[in-house]
Amino acid sequence: MITTTKPAGSLTTKMFLYLLAVYIIWGSTYLAMKIATKSVPPFLLSGLRFLLAGPVLLIIGIAKERTMPSGKQILSAVFVGMLLIGIGNASVALAVHHMPSGLVALLVAAMPAWFLGIDWAFFSRKRPSALTMTGIVLGFTGLFLLFNPLVHNHPKSFPLWPIVVVVCGSISWATGSLFVQRLPMPTQITSTAIQMIAGCVCSFLASFIFEPGAWSTLPLMMYEGWIAYFYLVFIGSLVGYTSYSWLTRNAPPRLTATYAYVNPVVAMFLGWAIGNEAVNSTVGMASAVVISGVVLMTLKK
After folding, report:
1. Strand locations in the chain, DSSP E?
2. I need a surface site. Which of 109, 127, 148, 169 has the fewest CB within 10 A?
3. Residue 47 to residues 30, 161, 172, 218, 294: CA-CA distances in angstroms?
4. Is the dihedral of CA 187, 27, 174, 116 positive or negative?
């Protein structure tokens, strides 16, 4: 078994750079997915995204790390990839196809709550502090204010069912992230590549079942869609996902989860500035409540 680096007790320069990459790059991928799914169905897009990124990274990993994973390590990476990409990432792609990208990012901002709850219930058994619980309640209160159909300014502008999809995807993502430090995993780059390939297979399977005729949409993709696709592959996947994968193995889970309150700010700004998504006073107030709650969840770290 290959020994992984234990979480660092302090924020090193390397850890900060990986965090910064996840903060900024992943915040921008929401709009990129929104643009790309205008032409290509979301599950197919998710599969195509990692179909290219996974093999490229696998070649890099084998050449650089020069180690072959065991069968048990491969199965662990496949399992994590199914949870993170096959379910977690694909659910976000589906949601941004139907909802404003900035609002989907706010839903994902609840990720630390799922991290803490699942870790408490199934892994560390460490009960969250009173401050953390206050943050969880505050965060979900903000989401209720944002999506409550009785007070939303435009209750019929988009469907609400993708909220359930994002919640399920977030739970899957948090579970997969917590398993990374508890399973025998391959070396860093090779592990990430296997996860991408496993997620790619899951996404193609979902597309085959739920998106008949999806492949016929590829010739219809506009220039901006291809730009968004290649951005998702080379920046969002190869740089962003690799950075996140490194953090899951080397940083405390609560520190890794802090990306969740930076990504929505980036996503909402880009959605407003480039995607022409409306940001009214209700959205602004609810967003501030959500992000404040997430900050309280992770304040000690």
Report:
1. none
2. 127
3. 16, 22, 17, 13, 30
4. positive
CA distance 147 to 160: 8
Burial class (CB in 10 A: 0-12, 13-18, 19+), 276: exposed
Q: What is the pLDDT of residue 2?
A: 36
Q: Residue 24: what residue type?
A: I
Q: DSSP code of 83?
A: I
Burial of residue 68 (number of CB atoms within 10 Å: 0-12, 13-18, 19+): exposed
Report the C-alpha gap between 46 and 282 in whole angstroms: 31
Q: Which amino acid is at 200?
A: C
Give CA–CA dist 30/36, Å, rounded: 10
Residue pLDDT, tens place only, 90-111: 999 999 999 988 889 888 888 8
Kindly state the tokens that stand for 267: 């996503």
Q: How far is CA 7 from the centre of its chain?
A: 21
Give 248-281 pLDDT, tens digit per residue: 778 877 777 777 778 888 888 888 888 888 777 7
Q: Given this model, what pLDDT does residue 65 score?
A: 87
pLDDT one-digit tens code per residue, 119-177: 888 888 777 778 878 888 888 888 877 776 555 444 457 788 898 999 999 999 999 98
In DSSP notation, 209-251 reads: HH-TTGGGGGGG--HHHHHHHHHIIIIIIIIIIHHHHHHHHHS
Rg from Cα positions in the chain: 18
Token pair in block for residue 33? 């997915």
What is the predicted pLDDT for the residue at 201? 97
Rounded Cα gap, residues 3 and 26, in angstroms? 28
Report d(CA 202, CA 4) in Å as an integer: 27
